[in-house]
Structure formats: C-alpha cells, structure tokens
C-alpha cells in the first residue's frame, strides 16, 4: 500500500494526528520525519493525494501545504476542500497533553528533541548517545512520561525526563 501523502511504496508507520477523533494515520518514514519541517520536493504528490477518503490524511495534507512555501502548494491549498469539522480539526492547535521535557517545556507531535543522557536501547543492541537529535516525535497518548522517536533508524520509546526540546 503506498503512502497516502507522497504516494511512495516505502513501508508505512503509524503517526499520531493531534486534535481530532482519529488517533493516527499510516505514512512513510520520510513523510513522518518531515512533518515538522516539510520539504516541497518530497510532497509534490500532495495535489493528488490530498483527496484521500481518510479525513486524517486530508488534515495532514492541509497542515503540510500550509507550511510549504511554494506556488504549487498555495494553489493546492486553495483547491483543497474540507468540511467544517475537518477544517476545524486541521486548524486546531494541539492542547497541552501533559508531555513535558526535562526542563518542563511542553512537547507536541512533530517536535524535535535532543537526548540529555546516554540511553541503552533494549532489544536493539546499541546505546543512544547524549546529544542525539530526535526529529518529529510522536506522543504516547496514554502516558505523558513517554514519547516515540527514531534513533539510528529504530523507532523507540523514550522517557520525557531524558530529552530537551530544541
């Protein structure tokens, strides 16, 4: 199954979509990594994929198109129609989920963090070193003390007490 945002055939991972009724959507790792700072070249397929039947995909497409500084993205955003509920979801600023970094700064989906301690990764056979950046985090919805992120190509759960927001 292709990625619903970029139409690539890469393996899909679940990414949380904040603020709405549906908790997550399956997208490729490249799209997940670029949710915080999207690059126009990767999302060139959005004008066709933004019409997906899944409202969560439409919401992500809207949010990405809003962040892109390209003429084609502005044109696509002008064409994108979202019903009232979907538009409210797409424009929703995520509420404070209780996820906070080691300094007490609120964390949100897509934030970039840095590890402040060497962390042994159970089952993966490596140690995530202090200073390692983790881009485009996801929040563990039922536990405000945990986030998910990709370190050395592995998707891992990280305790929020061991990260600081960039």
From TrEMBL:
Residues 99-166 form the Protein YjdM C-terminal domain. InterPro entries: YjdM_C. Pfam families: YjdM (PF03831). This is Alkylphosphonate utilization protein. The lineage of its organism: Bacteria, Pseudomonadati, Pseudomonadota, Alphaproteobacteria, Rhodobacterales.
């Amino acid at each position: 199954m292709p990625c619903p945002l970029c139409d690539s055939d890469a393996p899909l991972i679940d990414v949380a979509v904040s603020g709405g009724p549906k908790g997550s959507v399956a997208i490729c790792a490249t799209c997940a990594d670029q949710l915080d700072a999207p690059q126009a070249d990767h999302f060139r397929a959005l004008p066709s994929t933004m019409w997906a039947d899944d409202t969560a995909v439409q919401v992500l497409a809207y949010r990405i198109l809003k962040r892109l500084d390209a003429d084609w993205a502005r044109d696509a955003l002008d064409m994108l129609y979202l019903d009232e509920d979907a538009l409210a979801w797409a424009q929703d600023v995520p509420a404070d989920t209780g996820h906070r970094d080691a300094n007490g700064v609120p964390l949100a989906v897509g934030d970039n963090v840095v590890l402040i301690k060497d962390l042994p990764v159970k089952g993966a056979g490596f140690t995530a070193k202090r200073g390692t950046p983790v881009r485009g985090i996801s929040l563990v919805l039922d536990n405000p003390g945990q986030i998910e992120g990709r370190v050395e190509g592995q998707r891992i759960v990280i305790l929020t007490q061991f990260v600081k927001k960039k």
